[in-house]
Write a structure and sequence with these properties.
The complex is a heterodimer of chains A (about 110) and B (about 120).
Chain A: E1 9-12, E2 18-23, E3 33-37, E4 44-47, E5 61-66, E6 69-74, E7 83-91, E8 97-100, E9 104-108
Parallel strand pairs in A: 1-9
Antiparallel strand pairs in A: 2-6, 3-4, 3-7, 5-6, 7-8, 7-9
Chain B: E1 3-7, E2 11-12, E3 18-25, E4 35-41, E5 48-54, E6 59-61, E7 69-74, E8 79-84, E9 93-100, E10 104-107, E11 111-115
Parallel strand pairs in B: 2-11
Antiparallel strand pairs in B: 1-3, 3-8, 4-5, 4-9, 5-6, 7-8, 9-10, 9-11
Classes of the chains: A mainly beta (about 110), B mainly beta (about 120).
């Protein structure tokens, strides 16, 4: 089955840019989605289809995808961005499986 | 406004069947062109997809759980259910229901299910 690999943690100072990677075999050919999960809450979709944002998500959140790595970029990081972030793809070509990355804890210093 | 709400027992004994229901309001599970699925999260760990169904009737399950999972639909009540059989402590998790296509735009708040005797 398809595997997505994320770094366990990323730290960034307020106002700086955070980049969270998601590695997978030829992930550049897939639609990648990103979720933010704060403690005790359900995941919240922040980027879908690689680079689109749902209504209400600030444009500080952006995505890219190429080769074997997809990246979620959070610009001008705020304290409220501290959360776990998960990448996800949907394998429609085999068994319609959803696959999540292991998650990255973003710490705002 | 779309809302999903999980319900079911919070405690299940080992070897028994875990059963949860997701009640949906604000959209029709039998007519909208969305998938409706279950995802779980063991305490302190990451997200794991369990399975989903499409409004047309097709159902898809995680290969790792397929032998123990059944997702069923009650269209008149606009709700869908999860049955997970032969549970062990490893099935202790928060169980979320969600609406999705390639990505999930709406989630329930989650229901904690503990497997313990």
């Amino acid at each position: 089955s398809y595997v997505l690999t994320q770094p366990p943690s990323v730290s960034v100072a307020p106002g700086q840019t955070a980049r969270i990677s998601c590695g997978g075999n030829n992930i550049g050919s897939k639609l990648v989605h990103w979720y933010q999960q704060r403690p005790g809450q359900a995941p919240l979709l922040v980027v879908y289809d690689v680079r689109d944002r749902p209504s209400g998500i600030p444009d500080r959140f952006s995505g890219s995808n190429s080769g074997n790595t997809a990246t979620l970029t959070i610009s001008r990081v705020e304290a409220g961005d501290e959360a776990d972030y998960y990448c996800q793809v949907w394998d429609t070509y085999s068994d319609h499986s959803w696959v999540f990355g292991g998650g990255t804890k973003l710490t705002v210093l | 406004q779309l809302q999903l709400q999980e319900s079911g027992p919070g405690l299940v004994k080992p070897s028994e069947t875990l059963s949860l229901t997701c009640n949906v309001s604000g959209d029709s599970i039998s007519s909208s062109s969305y998938y409706w699925g279950w995802i779980r999260q063991p305490p302190g760990k990451g997200l794991e997809w369990i399975g989903s169904f499409y409004y047309s009737g097709n159902t898809y399950y995680s290969p790792s759980l397929m032998s123990r999972v059944t997702i069923s639909v009650d269209a008149p009540k606009n709700q869908f259910s999860l049955d997970l059989s032969s549970v062990t402590a490893a099935d202790t998790a928060i169980y979320f229901c969600a609406r999705h296509r390639s990505s999930a735009d709406s989630w329930g708040q989650g229901a904690l299910v503990t497997v313990s005797s």
